[in-house]
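Quick one:
INPUT:
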């Protein structure tokens, strides 16, 4: 699932649809991050990375998180959801590519 090609395909999708909230580096510090009562998830957080499963990440992206600003992205289609899941799971502590 986390094939390199999928990660590469997910990168521009993340920049287009997700970075505004989650940040270009995936660290939860997007331009709009401070607008929300529940802040966007920081994908570089070690505890989160250790606790999360690919299935949960996929479902969160597909269905959104009710009660938070996280929208459902079902309309992007299956391929995009798989690629975004792979990309999110590929984000390392410190965030790609320039750290924080
Ligand atoms: C409008 C702001 C916003 C946008 C755009 C957005 N998110 Fe989120 N996202 C959030 C918020 C707020 C949360 C909730 C934090 C929490 O409580 O887990 C969240 C949580 C998540 C989680 C964590 C789920 C979990 O179970 O821990 C994932 C994965 C995620 N977003 C992926 C994405 C992806 C991929 C995109 C782009 C397709 C995206 N988000 C776009 C605001 C946003």
């Amino acid at each position: 699932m986390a094939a390199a090609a999928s990660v590469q395909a997910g990168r521009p999708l993340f920049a287009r649809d997700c970075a505004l909230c989650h940040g270009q580096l995936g660290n939860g510090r997007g331009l709009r991050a401070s607008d929300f009562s529940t802040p966007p998830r920081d994908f570089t957080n070690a505890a989160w990375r250790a606790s999360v499963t690919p299935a949960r990440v996929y479902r969160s992206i597909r269905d959104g998180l009710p009660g938070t600003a996280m929208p459902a992205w079902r309309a992007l289609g299956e391929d995009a959801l798989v690629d975004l899941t792979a990309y999110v799971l590929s984000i390392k502590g410190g965030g790609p590519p320039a750290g924080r």
